[in-house]
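Lab notebook, bench 4. We co-purified these components, and the gel suggests they stay together. Before we commit to crystallization screens, I want a quick structural picture of the whole thing.
Request: model the full complex, all chains together.
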Amino acid sequence: MANVVDVLNKKIKETKAPIVVGLDPVLGEIPDCYKEKYSNMENKFEAIANILFDFNKDIIDVACKLVPAVKPQIAFYEMYGSWGMIAFEKTVKYAKEKGLIVIGDAKRNDIGNTAAAYAKAFLGKVDVGSGVEVPSYDVDFLTVSPYLGSDSLDPFISECEKNGKGVFILVKTSNPKSGDIQDKVDENGNKIYENIATYIEKESEKFETETGYSPIGAVVGATYPEQSIGLRKIMKKNIFLVPGYGAQGASASDICGNFNEDGLGAIVNSSRGIIFAYKKVCDKAVCTKEQYMESVEKAIDSMKTEILNALAQKGINY
Amino acid sequence: MANVVDVLNKKIKETKAPIVVGLDPVLGEIPDCYKEKYSNMENKFEAIANILFDFNKDIIDVACKLVPAVKPQIAFYEMYGSWGMIAFEKTVKYAKEKGLIVIGDAKRNDIGNTAAAYAKAFLGKVDVGSGVEVPSYDVDFLTVSPYLGSDSLDPFISECEKNGKGVFILVKTSNPKSGDIQDKVDENGNKIYENIATYIEKESEKFETETGYSPIGAVVGATYPEQSIGLRKIMKKNIFLVPGYGAQGASASDICGNFNEDGLGAIVNSSRGIIFAYKKVCDKAVCTKEQYMESVEKAIDSMKTEILNALAQKGINY
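Here is the predicted assembly.
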């Protein structure tokens, strides 16, 4: 079965942009021009859902011409309850209509039939009664957390097999204290995050794809460049979803070790650095939608140039 | 500030039931009598949201007289998108109106401002613009996952401090493969789950409560009774949320080690064993609402008797 990992790789080559735009719409940082239309709405959560979607729509309209994928961070939608989830659903749908790969950043997990419920909700189909199953969120990739163990990950991998979808499993995250659990060295001399990497590599044997890459990817923070190089050696044909670029402090040269020589194997996320880049040129009270969209385009272009230059220095060209 | 952990302890003593009823409404297992009213509804997700809430409402009406708390598992709502989240919101609200403590079982986590977004959504207030903040889900306790490290947990603990709420951090979960990460022995000879327990114990110093118990609790599976005893020694004044009883195979005697001598320190979850107990007496096609509610009451009563007897044998009485 065709898998989204092949579509992602094809799009990375086409756009020459191993970049995913994080759709983390923090209300307080959205320009006022997106809010005016809804300022008299009585239900604040309903108003915010509209604001978040309108804001995302403009980002998507710019991003779909320049990058292969977007990554809505579900927390920023879920925080506004069922209304927020409407904004999430509309965002996923619109991004897919515009040809973008959608990575649902939810870091979900649980055990048994609960893990299966999450897996079906995001990557498969859900039971609506009388033997009928329909897609729910229907994202292309989902981020998942491994703390509960391999049996908690099985339902997600099984949905990937069934539906040609993918996951990114947390391996080495970009935050300062990510080592609390992840860097512990076990009785065999392996770090916890290395064990997860080995697990991912092994599970990938189940998949055969056109580009040879596995749909079971790994979250590997840009802020730990040395660890990325080690992880690349364990997971040769897995995609790294790389957060931490820009706002969290990692530079373009930090992320080179995440890539393979074919220019594939990694997709670098930027959220605030792109969607709130407008702040460098105008105040949120006066920024127009045109100015806003221009700032998104410029930020993506400059990130792309930085990454392509850094990769070219390592002999990686598209 | 008054904390929900004191309310929980008071209710456990009052009801003599250290039990939480898991609200995991799997559509295919709900009796037909809850579905008939909505069978002609065109929007299937809307129909299901109504079914889930009506079903939960009857469980809550029984449970509120017998136990201190309910634990909706968010996956079973989230799987039906924004409609499902309406059912979740209505369930939380109704359970609280009925005087029940609500444990949101979401196993959420992330880093930085994303973790803060989840923490505010479930345990605090969310920004609706113009400096105004309002509660969103407003549960009493939330389950959270620790893989990302201590800085990912900070925002949740900070909301607990601010709002008198609590969390249950995954420590040793009930599933067969929970040991994949959790049981690894680190370079200091400590298991990963023991490190989390030590962290929880230390963070608890920030809290002073009436009953002396910390609102930073731990998820400790009933299926690992020996490990529970060890964890009880590390976390003396923390509440253990104990899954795995009944359907997952743990017995009443297995859960005794989770309790302190005062009869507090643990709350045992049962989901399927209570909410789908009706299957022992009638078929889902013919079960009436009265029969259903009676089955819930009987299942809770019998679980209560089993647990109280097992605890009494260890000299623990309410």
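The CA atoms of residues 78 and 108 of chain A lie 13 Å apart. Worth comparing against the SEC data before the next meeting. Residues 4-313 of chain A form a domain with the TIM Barrel fold (CATH 3.20.20.70).
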